Amino acid sequence: MKFLYYLISLPLLILALWAVYGIEASEGVTFILWPENTLNIKLILCAFLLYGFICGRLASWFAYAPMRRDLRLQKKANKALSKEHNKLNETVNGLQQNLDGLKEQVKKQEMPVSPVSQETRSWLSQVKDKFSIPKES
Fold this sequence. Notes:
This protein has helices spanning 2-21, 41-63, 65-108, 115-131, and strands at residues 28-32, 36-40. The protein is mainly alpha-helical. Among the domains are: 12-63; 66-104. The radius of gyration is 42 Å and the shape is rod-shaped. The mean pLDDT is 82.
């Protein structure tokens, strides 16, 4: 964005200064405000260019004030969400470690298979074989 700003503003500034110093006015301009003063026209044009630049910068600064405020609020919300995200990541990591530990305990405590359940399994497999429909190839 700064590149685009300089790409546009620098040639305009050079053009404005070239126009001011290209004026061939040998006479001074007389202003009658308080005391009677004679000023060079180039000085007056430079003063008006500076005044216009300052007014434009102030106007743009005030125009972008709501955007800057929104940006500040978004940064605050982003920090809060980042803290919450880190806290949740820590919780998930702790839960994952607990789950891994419980899985290891279950593997260590393998329960022996009772003979009754062994008999039940063999009976169920026989029943399944009797009532199963053969697959057609």
